[in-house]
Amino acid sequence: MWVVRRGQLCRALWGSQAPAASSRRRSAEPGSLPGPHCWSCGIRLPDRGGLPRFCPACQALQPPESQPDLFRLMGCDHSFNINVQQLQQRFRSLQRSLHPDYFSQRPQKERDFSEQHSSLVNRAYQTLLSPLRRGLYLLELNGVELAKGTDSGIDVEFLKEIMEINETLADPNNEAKIEEIESLIAVKQEELTKDVSKAFEGDDLQEAKKLLAKMKYFENLEDKVKSKKNPS
Predict the structure, then answer these.
(1) Phi and psi, residue 8, nearest 5°
(2) 222: nearest Cα among 176, 184, 192
């Protein structure tokens, strides 16, 4: 029963490229070949490029990579413009296939791996679903990071606009303007998202970096608006 379920999980994760356990079973001493080996039976594992993998011989779930490619994990192109519907479908498929309930009768080590995979899939989904986080991740993959605690590269007029909005939000007598500010932020974020897309399409990483820094300011404002609307 479990072997059949394992085969179904492999197909859900890998599609038509899922390895057949019977055809791939072979003997090998742990560590006798270079590269990753199954923690359970010790055979040499094929490269899955960051995708969740099962041992082709014993079907044991393997640990996630330390630095997986989130785009590949979620079946997306390495692009700022992604298919959100495809991302959501992939997320649901992975969550079902890697859910800890499927591994309740397996060794503790494998149950731990399923939880690690589930956590990774959640992080990947949240990263790629958000235009800001997706853009920052693309910059990171290209060796570009936003400087922390600095306004370097941000024009003065933009900072003045942010300051004015902050002052309005801080004024207890301006409750009626909260909806107006929320709409303004949504429009600004939509405009910036389009500009970031153009910057990445033109391979202008420095421009994308400046625009994403602005998106980060507006995200902070979004959080403040939410706090004003739903005080704890």
Answers:
(1) -65, -40
(2) 184
Tokens of 161: 């606009």
Q: Sign of the CA dihedral 70, 74, 78, 82?
A: negative
Give bridge partners of residue 44 from the DSSP assignment.
37
Q: Are 50 and 73 in contact (CB under 8 A)?
A: yes
When pLDDT is averaged across residues 101-125 and rounded to a whole number, the result is 93
Does the structure show a pLDDT above 60 at 108?
Answer: yes
pTM score, two decimals?
Answer: 0.81
Helices 156-170, 205-229: inter-axial angle, 10-degree rounding: 10
Helices 84-98 and 108-129, packing angle to 10 deg: 170
DSSP per-residue codes, the chain: -HHHHHHHHHHHHHGGGPPPHHHH-----TTSSSS-B-TTT-PBPPP-TTS--B-TTT-PBPPPPSS--HHHHTT--SSSS--HHHHHHHHHHHHHHH-GGGGTTS-HHHHHHHHHHHHHHHHHHHHHHSHHHHHHHHHHHTT--PPTT--TT--HHHHHHHHHHHHHHH-GGGGGGHHHHHHHHHHHHHHHHHHHHHHHHTT-HHHHHHHHHHHHHHHHHHHHHHHHHS--
